[in-house]
Each structure stands twice: as C-alpha cells, then as structure tokens.
Amino acid sequence: MVKTLTDEGVIVVGHIGLMPQFVRLDGGYKIKGKNEEQQKKLLEDALSLEEAGAGLLVLEGITAPIAQKITQTIKIPTIGIGSGKDCDGQILVWSDMLGFFDSFKPKFVREYLKGKELVQNAIKQYADDVKKGNFPNELESYY
C-alpha cells in the first residue's frame, strides 16, 4: 500500500511500535522492542517502509536502544513518541505537555504546565461570575 501511494506522489508517514488505535487488540499499552525478536521485527518494518517510499517514520513506544539503531540505520527522518532522545525529532501531545489529564500519564510525558488546575479554576470563576450576575456586564453586552 505504501509503495502504491508513494508511486502516485502521496507522501506517506510510516508508524511502527505501539499503536494506540490497536491497544485493545494488543492487550493494552505495551512498549515494543523489549526482546530481540521484537527488535528484529521493528528494524525490518522500518527498512520495509523506507524501501516502499515512506517519507518519514514515527517510532512510538519502543525502547530507546532500538529507536536509536533504527534512526542510525535508515535514511529517512524518525520522529519519536516515547522512544528516547536519539530520534531525529520528538512529539509530545499538547494536552499531555500542558497537564490537562492526570488519570493516565505515560512515562515519557513531561508536564510543563498544570493545565487541568488552571482550566478548573477558570471554569469555577466563570460559573461564580454568572451565578452572581457579574457576567456578562455592560462591557460585554450590546446596546
């Protein structure tokens, strides 16, 4: 499929490792590349996607050593999601980075803001202003 698409001029982004869309089939969020068999398969998949014409490759939820090996082996850029620092680029989902969720936090997430608290406080303040009749005021109304 990748070869067919790229032959038609479509830029394809490959994706290997943990696939969130398949976590139920996979029995949960499981890191890939923990054993030699998985590492071999990940490297083979990366090489196959590159050979088929993928323009770049997302490495998600794989161990840092195999992510580094893949990055050093293939010529196309790698983008890591929880796959260590040696990928060519990094993705951190903005809602994770800004701290909007606390019920599930993967190991690779670093929070740069306590967004959940800020949003909750803003919503409470808004509700209080509406209940007290402070919002909307004359500046926020049309006459």
Automatic annotation (TrEMBL):
Subunit structure: Homodecamer; pentamer of dimers.
GO BP of this protein: pantothenate biosynthetic process
Signal sequence interval, chain numbering: none
GO cellular component: cytoplasm
Species annotation: Streptomyces minutiscleroticus
SUPFAM superfamilies documented for this protein: Phosphoenolpyruvate/pyruvate domain
Origin: domain of life: Bacteria
Keyword Nucleotidyltransferase appears in the UniProt entry: no
EC number: 2.1.2.11
Keywords annotated in UniProt: Pantothenate biosynthesis, Transferase
One Pfam family this sequence matches: Pantoate_transf
NCBIfam families (UniProt xref): panB
Enzyme class: transferase
GO molecular function terms listed in the Swiss-Prot or TrEMBL record: 3-methyl-2-oxobutanoate hydroxymethyltransferase activity; magnesium ion binding
InterPro entries: Pantoate_hydroxy_MeTrfase, Pyrv/PenolPyrv_kinase-like_dom, Pyrv_kinase-like_dom_sf
Protein name, per record: 3-methyl-2-oxobutanoate hydroxymethyltransferase
